[in-house]
Each structure stands twice: as structure tokens, then as C-alpha cells.
Specification:
It is built from three helices and eight strands. The chain is of the alpha+beta class and about 130 residues long. The chain has one domain (about 5-130): 2,3-Dihydroxybiphenyl 1,2-Dioxygenase, domain 1 (Roll), CATH 3.10.180. The structure holds zinc ion (ZN). The site of zinc ion has 6 residues, from strand 1 and strand 5.
Length: about 130
């Protein structure tokens, strides 16, 4: 069902400063940025091998990333798993009793279809299921 770790999402206060750290200290190049209005977030993509780091800065005080940082500080916010068929995966998880945040896929950064699983069902980890071309 799960093909690989698609990306790791990291909540940051200052996207530019965070990108600078990854590029200059670790030599990981940023391959693009995108504002995802729906999630009130500005995203930077930093591919490493066949996965990537996704840096997330909130564009709104009420956004999920702003709230995450307020509660827990900067850090790993979610882990995304790549699947071939997100609808079938969600259906399967639902049937197995996994608590879903999103019953239907929504738009994710980079044109992916994404959905989140509730941390109560996943040992406290916010898991994103992601399908992309
Ligand atoms: Zn993500």
C-alpha cells in the first residue's frame, strides 16, 4: 500500500532562514516554493534522494502550522507516505477503523492529492497520505 516516505514536513517560523540553513549547512538545494492557501502555509521543497524535506511557514496566525508552533515549537510536523491510489487507501483505512482527519483527498503542495490521518490512531504522529503523478 505505502510505496515510500514521500516527504517529511517541518514547521518553521522563518522559511527563508530555514531554507538558508539546509542549503548552506547541509548542501540540500531548495527546488521550489509554493503558497498553499487552503492550508495557510508557504512551502519550500528540498529533495534528498527520492524523498524530500518540506519546510512549512504559516501565512496566517490561525493556520495549522502557526498553531503547531505555538503548542510545540518548531520541528517535525508530519510524515507523508506515498501511495498509488489515495481513495482506495482511505477507504481501506476507514474500514480498518483508523481515524481520518480527511475522509476525501484534498489539494496538497506540488499538485499532490493528500489526506491526513488522526494522530490518535497513529501513535501521536500526524501522517499524511499522498498520491502524485
Ligand atoms: Zn506534507
Amino acid at each position: 500500500m505505502v510505496k515510500k516516505i514521500d516527504h517529511i514536513g517541518i514547521a518553521v517560523k522563518d522559511l527563508e532562514k530555514a531554507v538558508e540553513f539546509y542549503e548552506q549547512m547541509l548542501g540540500i538545494k531548495c527546488e521550489g516554493k509554493e503558497v498553499v492557501e487552503e492550508q495557510k502555509v508557504k512551502v519550500a521543497f528540498l529533495p534528498i534522494g527520492d524523498t524530500e524535506i518540506e519546510l512549512l511557514e504559516s501565512t496566517d496566525e490561525e493556520g495549522p502550522i502557526a498553531k503547531f508552533i505555538e503548542k510545540k515549537g518548531e520541528g517535525i510536523q508530519h510524515i507523508a507516505f506515498r501511495v498509488d491510489n489515495i481513495e482506495a487507501t482511505l477507504e481501506d483505512l476507514k474500514n480498518k477503523g483508523v481515524r481520518l482527519i480527511d475522509e476525501k483527498p484534498r489539494y496538497g503542495a506540488g499538485g499532490a492529492k493528500i489526506a491526513f490521518l488522526h494522530p490518535k490512531s497513529t501513535n501521536g504522529v500526524l501522517i499524511e497520505i499522498s498520491e502524485r503523478e
